[in-house]
Amino acid sequence: MPHYQAWEEFTRAAEKLYLADPMKVRVVLKYRHCDGNLCIKVTDDVACLLYRTDQAQDVKKIEKFQSQLMRLMVAKESRSAAMETD
What we know:
This protein is of the alpha+beta class and 86 residues long. It has helices spanning 7-20, 58-85; strands spanning 3-4, 26-32, 37-43, 48-53. The chain has one domain: Signal recognition particle alu RNA binding heterodimer, srp9/1 (2-Layer Sandwich). Helix content is 49%, strand content 26%. The model is unreliable at 81-86 (pLDDT under 50). Heterodimer with SRP14; binds RNA as heterodimer. Component of a signal recognition particle complex that consists of a 7SL RNA molecule of 300 nucleotides and six protein subunits: SRP72, SRP68, SRP54, SRP19, SRP14 and SRP9.
């Protein structure tokens, strides 16, 4: 399981993983108060990408990334639903 140190590398790899097979990818966000660590994991059961941080400023980056993934998910769903109705 690769642990990414650089945020940009993690986001590129996670988006690439999502775009490869959107129906199998899931995102898990976990906060451990005792350690003060925030962990985001993106997996498709074959590959697992992990990014950990203890910096408060990274919370905004993670929130923005999750909203970007949600927009991709909604866009894919609306396109496939439109194709099924035609």
